[in-house]
Specification:
single chain; 231 residues; 6-stranded antiparallel sheet; 4-stranded mixed sheet; 16 strands; globular
C-alpha cells in the first residue's frame, strides 16, 4: 500500500520520479508552480498519476477550482451570441464557445437547450478570467468522448471521490462493469453522469458510486452484489 502524504500550504512538492518519462507536468487543484518549484496551496492528501504526470491535492473543500486539462461535467445555464455559459460548480460559470465541438462550423454547430448536460475539458483556468471549456480535443479535432450527454442521470459527489473515479483502476466502476452495462462520464468537479438500460439500473449504479467513497476493492464488490441482490 502506497504511503499517504499529507501536505499543507507552502509545502514544496517533489514532482520528479525515477519512473517519470513524461516531460509535461500537469498540476490539478491545490498546487501551483512558480520559480521552477511546485508547492501546495491547500491542505490535503497529495496524489499523482504516473501515466499522465498529473499531480493534485485532494481536500475536503466543497467548491471546485478549475485547472487546465481537467474533465468536467456541466449544465448549460445561458446562451449568448458566441456560445454558452455552463455551470461547472466553480465560483464562476464557464464559457463554452459555439465552435468548441467536433466538426463545428459557423453553418453547422450544436444547438444546446438550457439544462443540457455536457462533458467538457478546461482549456482556460486563470484567476483573472472566467474559465473556458471545450467539448472536443482541439489538438486532434476529435470529440474523444466529450460533448452533450443525452438522457441518463447526473448527480454530485465529493471532489475526492471524483478523483478516485477518474482512475482506470476505480474499484467501484470495475465492480459495476463486471455486472452491468452502463455509460459513465466523470468530472473532477464532483459531478457524475450515468446512463444504463433502465432507470432502475441507472439509480443502482449511482447509489453504488455514492456508497463507495470509503470502501476498498473487495468491499466495493460485495456492496455491488448486495445492491443487485446476489449475496
Amino acid at each position: 500500500m502506497a504511503n499517504v502524504k499529507v501536505v499543507v500550504p507552502g509545502d514544496i512538492i517533489e514532482t520528479r520520479t525515477e519512473a517519470n518519462e513524461e516531460p509535461v507536468l500537469r498540476l490539478g487543484p491545490g498546487l501551483t508552480h512558480q520559480n521552477d518549484k511546485t508547492s501546495a496551496v491547500v491542505a490535503g492528501v497529495l496524489h499523482n498519476s504516473s501515466d499522465s504526470n498529473q499531480w493534485w491535492v485532494a481536500s475536503n473543500k466543497r467548491r471546485y477550482s478549475p485547472a487546465e486539462g481537467e474533465p468536467v461535467v456541466g449544465v448549460v445555464v445561458a446562451r449568448h451570441g458566441e456560445g454558452y455559459r455552463v455551470d461547472i460548480g466553480s465560483a464562476h460559470d464557464a464559457l463554452l464557445p459555439l465552435l468548441a465541438f467536433e466538426g463545428a462550423t459557423r453553418r453547422n454547430k450544436p444547438n444546446l437547450a438550457l439544462g443540457s448536460v455536457v462533458y467538457a475539458r478546461i482549456v482556460v483556468a486563470n484567476l483573472m478570467m472566467e474559465p473556458e471549456i471545450e467539448c472536443f480535443n482541439s489538438h486532434t479535432g476529435k470529440s474523444e468522448g466529450y460533448g452533450e450527454l443525452s438522457g441518463g442521470f447526473m448527480f454530485k459527489c465529493s471532489l475526492g471521490l471524483a478523483h478516485q473515479l477518474i482512475s482506470a483502476k476505480a474499484p467501484v466502476l470495475n465492480a459495476l462493469g463486471s455486472e452491468l452495462a452502463f455509460e459513465a462520464a466523470v468530472g473532477v468537479n464532483g459531478r457524475v453522469w450515468i446512463n444504463a438500460e433502465s432507470p432502475e439500473k441507472t439509480i443502482l449504479v449511482a447509489n453504488a458510486i455514492k456508497n463507495s467513497e470509503h470502501l476498498n476493492a473487495s468491499q466495493c464488490k460485495q456492496m455491488v452484489k448486495e445492491l443487485l441482490g446476489r449475496n
